[in-house]
């Protein structure tokens, strides 16, 4: 592929410049690196800067040339250009040239050269990525989720219509409604008793005991499960119920409107009952969660909301029972079946891939990166269901109930297969999204680690230089380090946003947030020319946290590879598993607690040496106390996850 070959050339060029930038002269007798005179180095550095500038121009031209024919390659080049601009690599290289021309200290210049190498390696990592941009995949996932929702609704209604066809007399539906009403009333009574018990325990001297909270949480959880099951049963009954337009006094306009999707008409009493019961189940589950945390006040509020939802469900089910729904007529069943067939036809068209070639000739299927089938595999299944629905409608019109049931059963099977196909496609897209995110995080954390290490080394060197904090050179150097530290905090904030969007990890984003806070604390101390033990201890903690996080990202990548191998071998894998396993999160928490301990000891030592503690030291101590409380909260959340597992 032309674009791929061009990108390979760009990768090789970037790799060669990284090698040049990393090179040093070596003393053959000692094997140690030595620094040549600054002027020849300045010439070489200027050559690298010029090549990077030309490399950026070439990437821009390539991106424009490939935009039409190879959009994926053009997209990758655009990402590399954006990252190059974000890092400011060309500008940093120009600064290095000026430093070498002025003959400044080569040790500090070497540290900046290492940062420039890390920048170029980051751009190289972007060029080596082959997946589509996250935004495109997110749109694909959103479209698939919308289609999945439509498919699930269609499947539920087809199942309900099948049951309505099977129930010739209509007595079965009435019986289900009455059973649901009795079940809802019983749940309301049991919930009221449990709510009263919670209130008594909470009002007792000393409040609710942990054992009482545990027992009530178990009872509340069982009630939540029962409510969820009843909500599903009422939902199925609502799908089975005859349409309102089947009444003799309904107008033709009503009949036409009934062919529209259910969501566009006013909900029936059964639908209202199902929704209220679902809300009750959710409130009960939240109450159980609050009880597990021994939070009696929150549990009482959730229980009160659950009772209110149950009362709404009972009221709606009473209305449905009093309506004495008549038996569905053959004509009504046939009309409803044709309406579902029309919806299946529309969904099938929306799922159909773009056509190419001769009219009526389907486009060739493009394999996904993993070799799995694309989401368009669901389309023929929906098309099969549509045909079965039409056949069922014809049988109903001929009053052939048995024949209609056979076609309806096949329609349900086809829709269930289509649902499995879409679920498989969604899993694949989400896996690709996670892989893309992990590659991006690894590149960013590697970049952060390299730059933080250099800042730490320069801070230590500056503190041990013997210069006074009042010296102008000392002040400028500390200010420069402060600015660089603060810029790293901005990169950390970007990583934090990515993890918060992902939303399955507990410890990882909290540790990252702590690193961001520490970076800003260090930046403030450096701005005030404080380069001593406390500042360096916090810097060491930041570097340790970044090392732990980088290791965790690599562990995540290994977990993803193992999960993919399980899927390829046909073994089931947990697609809802958190991005980082609990064992790895515990390891991160342990390291965070160790950093809190070390900082506490450093602050205590600093106070014993200097009794006149500065403002930033007081701030550091206060932040350490907050950090200890945060470790406790994280541990509590992890314990809760382990209990749920």
Characteristics:
645 residues; mainly alpha; Four Helix Bundle (Hemerythrin (Met), subunit A); 4 domains; 79% helix; flat
Description of the structure:
- The protein has 645 residues and is an all-alpha fold.
- It folds into four domains: 1-130, Four Helix Bundle (Hemerythrin (Met), subunit A) (Up-down Bundle); 136-168 and 327-354 and 372-429; 171-326; 464-569 and 576-645, no CATH class.
- It has 19 helices and two strands.
- It has helices at residues 2-22, 38-66, 71-87, 89-102, 106-128, 134-166, 171-203, 210-240, 252-258, 269-292, 296-322, 330-351, 378-397, 401-463, 472-502, 507-527, 533-568, 582-609, 615-644; strands at 25-26, 33-34.
- A two-stranded antiparallel sheet has the order 1-2.
- β1 and β2 form a beta hairpin.
- The longest helix has 63 residues, at 401-463.
- Mean pLDDT is 76; it is low at 1-5, 15-20, 22-38, 245-264 and 356-375.
